[in-house]
Amino acid sequence: MARRIRLASASSRRLNWLTEHLNGLAMIDAKPLVGEEKTTDGEVSNQVTRVLEDKISRARLQYYLESQTSEERETLLPPDLWVVSDTLVEDPNDVNSALGQPQNEISALRMLLDLSGRRHLVWSGTAIIDFSKPEPIINRYIESAVVEFQSLDESVLSMLISSGSWKGKAGAYDMAGKAEEFTQLVEGEKVTVLGFASQAIEEIRRIIAHSDSNS
Description:
The protein is α/β, with parallel strands linked by helices. It contains six helices and seven strands, in the order βαβαββαββαβαα. The chain has helices spanning 12-22, 44-73, 105-115, 154-162, 190-194, 198-214; strands at 3-7, 26-30, 81-90, 98-99, 119-130, 137-149, 183-187. It is elongated and about 55 Å long. The termini are close together.
């Protein structure tokens, strides 16, 4: 039987990527974390670490609450392998500022103008939480990638905005979507830009392989 994995994220991009690249090796249960995300400051490289730790804490609480509810109702327990992740786009003008998800077309346009014709860093922090042991095993991974945007003229900007591809995307773009032909990966792994630390994906594959060998 395929290993059940909880992807604790509301990101359809993460779900699609994980589903495609695990290629049927796991049953992915996607469900966002409850509670509000903490905001933080300092360098973006440190921000992503702190946000990831907050998500780990929320995931642990959510797992135990869901497990308790399942036992009381005698329903299926939640998966015991959880994946939490956070991705931040670093403002090319300020290492202490992250470009989050734009609230509207105007903020999306501002972000794209900021990134146009320039290189920027993308940070992804991913944690793999194994609840199958009495004390959860948590592996954390932080990675960065460098992305370069072409200079975006008015027609391209108009297309990117009107397409709605900026919605729900840090930095107002999706490297696996409409923005793909206007961006280039200069350094690092594409999966880092799309929402996961690449080492975390290798760890998931290792855990699944180990589960299969013991079944």
